């Protein structure tokens, strides 16, 4: 019975590599490989369509460029995982496993630093919002993003509605020739539920009004406080998202490490069989 085909230790036909683990690693990498291609395509398209470079100065990085870089790195890493699992290549699988572990550790470190240095992170966000206000009219995508945020959070400006004076079109200076002088964007306005047509001029002259008087027409609280309050009230949601990002990475690390160990055991078995091939008792 020792020479039966497929019996452990009988020859090269027996494999210690589980097909289930092997193709799970491949499927895992293939899915994220497709996602990486989509990310790169969207980033390239957005970069080609973007003309207002000055408007992106308010952001830490160009979102389109960041999408392309992340997509490209993700493409390389998942490509190593795909080929490594199919070819049972330890070098490629170890590269994939190490890269995934580093990414996980970097994300964990970033989360801890953001929590520990929350004040500095808030200062950074404040600066970004103020720069976005300055460049509001220079880019339609940025404008739509700010309007969406102000509508969604029911806020206006960074700290208060008068922050819109930082924008050259809404500035309250006497020599400002803009028709929007001392105004705020329509997204700051308190929209009646029964209003079917949006009044885009509802924010006209609101910076000239006192806080209480303006509060009957627009949202006077700033978006920074609204954002902080939203984060505090949605900690479980944010924690769930973070966990949802971490679990696939941990699963990928675990599966790839299992496959690496199985391939190493298979190599040891083949080497053992090669050394004892001439032994009549094997």
Going by helix content, strand content and strand pairing, the class is mainly alpha
Number of helices: 8
- How would you sum up the major sheet? none
Span between termini: 11 Å
Question: Which parts are unreliable, with pLDDT below 50 for 5 consecutive residues or more?
Answer: 1-11
Oligomeric state of this protein: single chain
- Overall geometry: elongated
Helical proportion?
55-70%
- In angstroms, what is the radius of gyration? 29 Å
- Mean pLDDT, all residues: 84
Strand content: under 5%
Number of strands: 0
Q: Please trace the helix and strand order, writing H or E for each element.
A: HHHHHHHH
Write the layout of secondary structure elements.
Blueprint: H1 19-49, H2 63-87, H3 90-116, H4 118-134, H5 140-153, H6 211-214, H7 223-233, H8 235-275
What does this structure look like?
The structure is a single chain. The chain has 282 residues and is mainly α. The protein has helices at 19-49, 63-87, 90-116, 118-134, 140-153, 211-214, 223-233, 235-275. Helix 1 crosses helix 8 and helix 3 runs antiparallel to helix 8 (235-275). The chain is elongated, with a radius of gyration of 29 Å. The relative contact order is 0.12.
Annotation keywords:
282 residues; mainly alpha; elongated
What is the structure about, briefly put?
With 282 residues, the chain is mostly helical. It has helices at 19-49, 63-87, 90-116, 118-134, 140-153, 211-214, 223-233, 235-275.
């Amino acid at each position: 019975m020792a020479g039966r085909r497929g019996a452990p230790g009988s020859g090269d036909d027996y494999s210690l590599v589980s097909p289930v683990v092997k193709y799970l690693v491949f499927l895992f990498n293939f899915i994220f490989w497709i996602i990486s291609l989509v990310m790169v395509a969207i980033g390239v398209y957005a970069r080609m369509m973007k003309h207002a470079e000055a408007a992106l100065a308010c952001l830490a990085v160009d979102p389109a460029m960041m999408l392309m870089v992340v997509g490209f790195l993700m493409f390389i890493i998942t490509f190593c995982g795909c080929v490594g699992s199919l070819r049972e290549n330890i070098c490629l699988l170890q590269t994939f496993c190490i890269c995934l572990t580093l990414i996980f550790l970097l994300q964990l470190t970033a989360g801890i630093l953001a929590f520990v240095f929350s004040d500095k992170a808030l200062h950074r966000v404040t600066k970004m919002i103020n720069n976005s206000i300055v460049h509001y009219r220079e880019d339609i995508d940025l404008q739509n993003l700010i309007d969406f945020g102000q509508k969604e959070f029911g806020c206006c400006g960074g700290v208060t509605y008068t922050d819109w004076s930082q924008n050259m079109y809404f500035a309250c200076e006497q020599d400002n020739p803009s028709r929007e002088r001392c105004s705020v964007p329509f997204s700051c306005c308190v929209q009646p539920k029964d209003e079917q047509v949006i009044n885009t001029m509802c924010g006209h002259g609101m910076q000239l009004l006192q806080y209480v008087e303006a509060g009957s027409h627009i949202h006077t609280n700033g978006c920074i406080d609204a954002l902080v309050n939203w984060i505090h009230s949605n900690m479980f949601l944010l924690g769930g998202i973070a966990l949802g990002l971490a679990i696939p990475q941990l699963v990928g690390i675990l599966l790839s490490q299992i496959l690496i160990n199985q391939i190493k055991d298979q190599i040891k078995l083949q080497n053992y069989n090669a050394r004892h091939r001439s032994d009549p008792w094997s």
